[in-house]
């Protein structure tokens, strides 16, 4: 089976296999990782190795703290303004889709937000040219969503934020290709795409941004408290953290993010290439900004949608239904999706088109 689900949890088959083998007895300890004390030597080693592997994979220097938090990326929509507004306002946000809008709406609960640019009028099919952004040089931070998971829109550049800390919701693009972390003040990523199970959220924060939380910030949402306690202020999501560690090891064995980026580009090029050469399928996004991770597409005739999905399921091509807010289809092709899965999808799309077109 090939699972094109946008989340939660699209883990590599090898990782699931390893987790199954280790589930009841982790390396002769007689315990599942789930049952270990988070303060035990065994678990602390698992946690530290995961962080170290992530640092190596993503090229994260000691100038940054890496936090393993809970509550998904959505909780970060509040945690970011609570910690980074620092009495300053506004915070600048760029609106390129459903996830940006959610981040903006939540941030407005904690301070003033300036929407510096938006592609809403274009139906979120493009990223506004940075020259047109109305950013504020005194802003607390500049927030953007590098990959809009639902719309399938991905920036092909890192915005220049000058001296203002750049904040990115990398939930659906983290570790999909090489990235210059030093350009960012803070990155957060809900784990369930390229990292591990849902619920866990990884935060990479430049250390000078720690310790500025607004008064009244819940302790559990204060980045400094979490950093000072090595992400163990409370009981962390130990099993998810362990699974993320297995994914990082797997990623290293694949050649890291550079190798993964090449594979991901090839997968996306193939699928968009086929869609563009067909009169039967279409993708609305400006080609430059098409997502490597989430590929939405429509059929020429909407009434064939359920037949398309049914035929796909019979071939074990799973979860291709588009997000309920946009309809059509969506193939999420995260790191865990092998190239053979994309080939199998294209073969099916060709066969369906041949059978149904005209
Ligand atoms: N941001 C982006 C870009 C997402 O794709 C998602 C979920 O799919 C979220 C935020 C919300 O993540 P969570 O469900 O972990 O809160």
UniProtKB/TrEMBL annotation:
<protein>
    <recommendedName>
        <fullName>Phosphoserine aminotransferase</fullName>
        <ecNumber>2.6.1.52</ecNumber>
    </recommendedName>
</protein>
<dbReference type="InterPro" id="IPR015422">
    <property type="entry name" value="PyrdxlP-dep_Trfase_small"/>
</dbReference>
<dbReference type="GO" id="GO:0005737">
    <property type="term" value="C:cytoplasm"/>
</dbReference>
<dbReference type="GO" id="GO:0030170">
    <property type="term" value="F:pyridoxal phosphate binding"/>
</dbReference>
<comment type="subunit">
    <text>Homodimer.</text>
</comment>
<dbReference type="InterPro" id="IPR022278">
    <property type="entry name" value="Pser_aminoTfrase"/>
</dbReference>
<dbReference type="Pfam" id="PF00266">
    <property type="entry name" value="Aminotran_5"/>
</dbReference>
<feature type="binding site">
    <location>
        <begin position="73"/>
        <end position="74"/>
    </location>
    <ligand>
        <name>pyridoxal 5'-phosphate</name>
    </ligand>
</feature>
<comment type="pathway">
    <text>Cofactor biosynthesis; pyridoxine 5'-phosphate biosynthesis; pyridoxine 5'-phosphate from D-erythrose 4-phosphate: step 3/5.</text>
</comment>
<feature type="binding site">
    <location>
        <position position="192"/>
    </location>
    <ligand>
        <name>pyridoxal 5'-phosphate</name>
    </ligand>
</feature>
<feature type="binding site">
    <location>
        <position position="99"/>
    </location>
    <ligand>
        <name>pyridoxal 5'-phosphate</name>
    </ligand>
</feature>
<keyword id="KW-0032">Aminotransferase</keyword>
<dbReference type="InterPro" id="IPR015421">
    <property type="entry name" value="PyrdxlP-dep_Trfase_major"/>
</dbReference>
<feature type="binding site">
    <location>
        <position position="149"/>
    </location>
    <ligand>
        <name>pyridoxal 5'-phosphate</name>
    </ligand>
</feature>
<keyword id="KW-0808">Transferase</keyword>
<keyword id="KW-0963">Cytoplasm</keyword>
<feature type="binding site">
    <location>
        <position position="169"/>
    </location>
    <ligand>
        <name>pyridoxal 5'-phosphate</name>
    </ligand>
</feature>
<keyword id="KW-0028">Amino-acid biosynthesis</keyword>
<comment type="pathway">
    <text>Amino-acid biosynthesis; L-serine biosynthesis; L-serine from 3-phospho-D-glycerate: step 2/3.</text>
</comment>
<dbReference type="InterPro" id="IPR000192">
    <property type="entry name" value="Aminotrans_V_dom"/>
</dbReference>
<dbReference type="InterPro" id="IPR015424">
    <property type="entry name" value="PyrdxlP-dep_Trfase"/>
</dbReference>
<comment type="similarity">
    <text>Belongs to the class-V pyridoxal-phosphate-dependent aminotransferase family. SerC subfamily.</text>
</comment>
<dbReference type="GO" id="GO:0006564">
    <property type="term" value="P:L-serine biosynthetic process"/>
</dbReference>
<feature type="domain" description="Aminotransferase class V">
    <location>
        <begin position="2"/>
        <end position="345"/>
    </location>
</feature>
<comment type="function">
    <text>Catalyzes the reversible conversion of 3-phosphohydroxypyruvate to phosphoserine and of 3-hydroxy-2-oxo-4-phosphonooxybutanoate to phosphohydroxythreonine.</text>
</comment>
<dbReference type="GO" id="GO:0008615">
    <property type="term" value="P:pyridoxine biosynthetic process"/>
</dbReference>
<keyword id="KW-0663">Pyridoxal phosphate</keyword>
<keyword id="KW-0718">Serine biosynthesis</keyword>
<feature type="binding site">
    <location>
        <begin position="234"/>
        <end position="235"/>
    </location>
    <ligand>
        <name>pyridoxal 5'-phosphate</name>
    </ligand>
</feature>
<feature type="modified residue" description="N6-(pyridoxal phosphate)lysine">
    <location>
        <position position="193"/>
    </location>
</feature>
<dbReference type="GO" id="GO:0004648">
    <property type="term" value="F:O-phospho-L-serine:2-oxoglutarate aminotransferase activity"/>
</dbReference>
<keyword id="KW-0664">Pyridoxine biosynthesis</keyword>
<feature type="binding site">
    <location>
        <position position="39"/>
    </location>
    <ligand>
        <name>L-glutamate</name>
    </ligand>
</feature>
């Amino acid at each position: 089976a090939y699972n094109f689900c946008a989340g939660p949890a699209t883990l590599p088959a090898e990782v699931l296999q390893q987790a199954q083998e280790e589930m009841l007895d982790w390396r002769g300890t007689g315990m599942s990782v789930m049952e270990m004390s988070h303060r035990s030597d065994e678990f602390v080693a698992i946690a530290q190795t995961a962080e170290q592997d992530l640092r190596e994979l993503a090229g994260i220097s000691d100038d940054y703290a890496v936090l393993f938090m809970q509550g998904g990326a959505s909780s970060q929509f509040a945690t970011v303004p609570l910690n980074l507004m620092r009495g300053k306002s506004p915070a600048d946000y760029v609106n390129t889709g459903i996830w940006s809008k959610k981040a903006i709406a939540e941030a407005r609960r904690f301070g003033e937000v300036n929407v510096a640019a938006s592609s809403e009028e274009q139906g979120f099919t493009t990223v506004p040219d940075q020259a047109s952004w109305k950013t504020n040089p005194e802003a607390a931070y500049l927030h953007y969503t590098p990959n809009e998971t639902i719309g399938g829109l991905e920036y092909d550049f890192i915005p220049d934020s000058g001296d203002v800390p750049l904040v990115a919701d990398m939930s659906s693009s983290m570790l999909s290709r090489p990235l210059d972390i030093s350009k960012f003040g803070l990155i957060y990523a809900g784990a369930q795409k390229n990292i591990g199970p849902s619920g866990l959220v990884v935060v990479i924060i430049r250390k000078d941004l720690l310790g500025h939380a607004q008064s009244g910030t819940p302790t559990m949402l204060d980045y400094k408290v979490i950093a000072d306690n090595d992400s163990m202020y409370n009981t962390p999501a130990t099993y998810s953290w362990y699974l993320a560690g297995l994914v990082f090891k797997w990623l290293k064995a694949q050649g890291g993010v550079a190798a993964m980026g090449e594979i991901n580009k090839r997968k996306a090029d193939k699928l968009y290439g086929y869609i563009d050469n067909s009169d039967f399928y279409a993708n609305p996004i400006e080609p430059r900004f098409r997502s490597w991770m989430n590929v939405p597409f429509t059929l020429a005739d909407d009434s064939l949608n359920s037949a398309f999905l049914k035929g796909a399921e019979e071939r074990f091509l799973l979860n291709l239904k588009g997000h309920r807010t946009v309809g059509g289809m969506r193939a999420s092709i995260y790191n865990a999706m092998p190239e053979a899965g994309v080939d199998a999808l294209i073969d099916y799309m060709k066969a369906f088109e041949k059978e149904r077109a005209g």
